[in-house]
Every structure is written in C-alpha cells, then in structure tokens.
Amino acid sequence: MMRIGILGATGRVGKKVVEYALQDGHRVTALVRDPGKIEPRAGLAIIEGSALSKEDVGRVLQKTEAVISALNTDGTTTLSASTPLIIEAMHEVGIKRLITIGTAGILQSRTDPHLLRYESSESKRRSTRAAEEHRRMYEQLQASGLDWTIVCPTYLPDGEAIGNYRTERDVLPEGGSQISVGDTAEFAYGQIADSRYLRARVGIAY
Questions:
Q1: Fewest Cβ atoms nearer than 10 Å: which of 30, 106, 138, 202?
Q2: What is 3-205's CATH number?
Q3: What global pTM score does this model have?
Q4: Do residues 164 and 186 lie in contact, with contact meaning Cβ atoms separated by under 8 Å?
C-alpha cells in the first residue's frame, strides 16, 4: 500500500487514475477545486484547493510517497504556473517521484529530430498554445532534480483501457494516431512502480 497524491483528479484522466489507485488498495489524497465533482470513497482523502496555491499543494503531499499530476492547460497558464509550486513542495516534503500527463506535441519529431512535434510538419494542430504550455512544464521538470516521467498521449478520445498500446521514449510510436483516456490513465498510474522512463517523455498510442 502506498500513499499517492493526485492533482487534476476530476479531469478525464485524473478520475481514472484515482480509480486504479483505489482498486489496488492505495491511499489517495486528491486536490480538487470542486469537491462535488469527485465521489467520496474509502481510501480517498479529498482536499479542496488550487494547484496555484503552494499551501494547498503542500497539504496534498503530506505523507505521500509519489505524485501524479493530470492537470491540463485549461486554456491558461495553470500548468506552467503550478509546476514550480509542485516541485518546491515535493522538495520540502522529500518526495522525488512525479508522473505528469503531457501531450504528444512535446515529443521529438521523427521527420525533424531537432524539433519538437508541435514545431514540425508532423503536427496537424494549428494552435500551438497548449503545446507551448506543456513545453514550459517539461523544461521546469528537466531542471527540477526530481524523478519525473511525462506521459505524452496523442489524440485522446474517451474510452476504457484495453491494454494493447505501444510506448516509446521521447517520440510517438510510429503511425500512432490515438490512445484512450483509460489506457493513458492506466499507463500513467503504472509508472509509480516502473523505473524504465525516469526523467523522460513517453509517447503512447495504439
């Protein structure tokens, strides 16, 4: 049994991560802005607060052994503003393991390896704002000294975990075009016990 802190626990991926952790008998502390969006359950401690408050983040991390962040960009700078607070709080309480959900846009391009996917012709998205936010988070984690992993899904439709997916360090698996919310959450949750992708981005796709 582990104690796991989860940020972004009411989002699509975060909700699934909470489910997997509780099913395995872990104790979960979740930071949420709206407690009405998460169902109280045995083993789950819910803390109302904001990822933009270092004090709130610190409350979640007390007595935890690993952190999973499924925070998204929300069309704002929430991601890049909260990441330094998370890093600082983790250093203060002595936790090193952090798994976050990123985007395939910050993986290396296969066609232009010196570029990230969102900077290259590989990306079909017109707007790069979200990818730029994720890149700032990636750069902050690179300098953090933590044992981080960024799980980088491509197109992310709703769907249960089926388990038949591919992962690759720093690039998107060749020909990968989508991955379900369920499989993304299952893989991210599994990284707590897996050290293959320490301090790396991981592309995930079918």
A1: 138
A2: 3.40.50.720
A3: 0.96
A4: no
